[in-house]
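User: Need the bound-state model for zinc ion:
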Amino acid sequence: MSAGWPFEDMHVHSTFSDGAATLEQNIERAIELGMTRLTCVDHVRRDTDWLPEFVSAVEPWRGHRQIEVLCGIEAKILTLEGDLDLPGDTSGVDRIYVADHQMPGPDGPIHPREVAAALVAGEASANRVVGELVDATAAGVARDERSVIAHLFSILPKLGLDESAVSTESIDALADCTARVGARIEIDERWRCPGPRVVRPFLQRGVEVLASTDSHRLETLGQFAFVRSTFDSLGVGPSPPGDDA
Ligand SMILES: [Zn+2]
Ligand SMILES: [Zn+2]
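Assistant: Bound-state model below.
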C-alpha cells in the first residue's frame, strides 16, 4: 500500500519564512520526485506583511498538468479560545495550519518550559494541561474550514509528557470537531507525530489525513519514514487527489 511514495508532501517551508529553498525550488523538486500534490506552507504572525506576495507566487502553478500546488500558512494557537497568530486578511490562502508551537493560555501563549516547570512543581496537572491544549486546538480548528491540525501534540515532549497522557475521549472530541468543520490533520515527519492511536479516530470519521515532511530544506522534501510507517500500521495511505473512494 505504500507503493508510489512520495506522491504528496503537504507541508514544506520556503524562504518566505524559515525554509532554505525558494518556493519555486521546492515545487520543481516535488515535480522531479513525481509528486502529484504539494502544499507550500510558511510561518505567519499577526503582523506578517508578505502574504499577498506569497499567494501570488503560488498562483502561476495552479492548473499545472502534473502537480496540484496549494498555498498554506502556519500559525500558532495563542489562547484557550483558539485565537491564532494570523494576519487579518488571509484571502487566497488554501490551508491554515493550526500549530502547537507554544502552550495556549488564557491571556496568550505560554513558553513550554514554564508549563514543564509548573508540572514538575505540582502547580499544574497533566490532565488539565492536556485538556486545555486539546480544547484550544479544537477551538482554533473550528474557526475555518481551511484548517489543518499541524504536528498534533508536538508540544507534549517539551512539557515532559507524551501522547499516552491524552485520553481517548479527548482525541475523539477533537476528531469530531475536525470532521464537523471539514478540516484535516497531518502526520508530520519532522516532529514524528501524531502516532497511530491519535490518527485512527480521525480516519474513522472520514477526516482527510495528510502526509507532511514539514521540510525546511530541499534534501528532506518528500522523504518519509515515520509518516510512511504510521500510515502502514493504520492499513491506509494518504488519499491521493481524485480518489473519491
Ligand atoms: Zn510547526
Ligand atoms: Zn511547519
